[in-house]
Design a protein that fits this description.
By secondary structure, the chain is α+β, with helices and mostly antiparallel strands. It has one domain: Deoxyribonuclease I, Chain A (4-Layer Sandwich), CATH 3.60.10.10. It is 24% helix and 25% strand. The chain is built from 7 helices and 12 strands. The strands form 2 sheets. The protein has a 6-stranded mixed beta sheet with strand order 3-4-2-1-12-11. It is globular and about 45 Å long. Pfam families: Exo_endo_phos (PF03372). This is Exodeoxyribonuclease-3. InterPro entries: AP_endonuc_1, AP_endonuclease_F1_BS, Endo/exonu/phosph_ase_sf, Endo/exonuclease/phosphatase, ExoIII-like.
């Protein structure tokens, strides 16, 4: 079973890129972030023609998350991260697919830091920590996948010295991510590639992709009952080089187990 996460950076504007990648890699489950469209404008029919059913949580012009499943409809279990009833951002959606609970998230960017946006990011991270800990208590197969907007270590950023004060790399954010992993989650990419410099995002400017001046922002975290099934984890870099593409690349894992 293949599970992927992909920040599409506008699903309708990048739909040809998304469909091309789905046809090429044929993931079984896909978590999408930054849809940048309302619920009504989500391209459900086009995805169904490509063989994927979906659940989504849209927001006009900003944010937005979705879960796609090949050949079956994800069973929606949650829209929105608990802990703040006044939070109107569409940043979390959860569904069951093939016996696995999939949480798709788009964590706030937080810049400029310090400031209100950074405070919101840390508050959102606190809510995620609480809910992720609750999820683990159920002892079921779970994957938390998405754009976490954090580079966990210096190995995850091309020039650490330039990012010290950025909201994606500040100590508070890296500490929160470490606390999340220490709950018992497995960072799939880093688990299988402990010493490799791997990126999932490259800015559009200054030939960042060509120079491989990137950041690792997109992660798949696996619960203990799922981590034992992990076979492979890799960044699918090719779509980042296509025309009119997202500034992120898909990240995909493969699970091999009799139960999944």
């Amino acid at each position: 079973m293949k599970i992927a996460t992909y920040n599409v950076n506008g699903i309708n504007g990048r739909l040809p890129v998304l469909l091309r990648w789905l046809k090429q890699d044929r993931p079984d489950v896909v978590c999408l972030q930054e849809l940048k469209c309302s619920d009504a404008r989500f391209p459900d029919s086009e995805l169904q023609k490509a063989g994927y059913a979906a659940v989504w949580h849209g927001q006009k012009s900003w944010n937005g998350v979705a879960i796609l499943a090949k050949g079956k409809t994800p069973v929606l279990t949650r829209q929105g991260l608990p802990g703040d009833p006044d939070d109107s951002h569409s940043r979390y959606i959860e569904a069951a697919v093939n016996g696995i609970l999939i949480g798709c998230l788009y964590l706030p960017n937080g810049n400029p830091a310090p400031g209100p946006k950074f405070k919101y990011k840390l508050h959102w991270f606190d809510r995620l920590l609480s809910y992720a800990d609750e999820l683990l208590s159920h002892d079921v197969p779970i994957a938390l996948a998405g754009d976490f907007n954090v580079m966990p270590t210096e190995l995850d950023v091309y020039a650490p010295e330039r990012w010290r004060d950025d909201a994606l790399f500040r100590p508070e954010v890296r500490k929160a991510y470490a606390e999340l992993v220490n709950q018992g989650w497995t960072d799939a990419v880093r688990h299988l590639h402990p010493r490799e410099r791997i990126y999932t995002f490259w800015k559009y400017w200054r030939n960042s992709f060509e120079r491989d001046a990137g950041l690792r922002l997109d992660h798949l975290l696996l619960s203990p009952t799922l981590a034992s099934s992990l076979k492979s984890a890799e960044v699918r870099r090719a779509p980042r080089g296509w025309d009119h593409t997202s500034d992120h690349a898909p990240v995909m894992i493969e699970l091999v187990s009799p139960s999944v």
